[in-house]
Amino acid sequence: MKWRVILESDLETGDWAVWCPELPGCTSAGETEEEALENIKEAIQLYLQPESIELTPSAIAREIIVS
User: Fold this and answer.
1) Assigned domain for 65 exists
2) pTM, full prediction
3) Contact (CB, 8 A) for 34 and 41
C-alpha cells in the first residue's frame, strides 16, 4: 500500500518533520530524512492497526472492502 507523505526540514535544528495528509494526526520526525521516513512508516502502521472494541451480545461485526 502506498501513502503520500510530506517532509519538512526544521531550519533551526536540521531535523525533519513528516506527516501523511490522508491520515489526520499521523505525524513523525527524525534527525535525518531517512530516519523520518522510517518513523512515518511505523506511525502509519500503528495508525491503521485496528483497535479492539467491546460489543454488546446482539451486535454484529462485519468487514467491508472499499476500493
Assistant:
1) no
2) 0.74
3) no
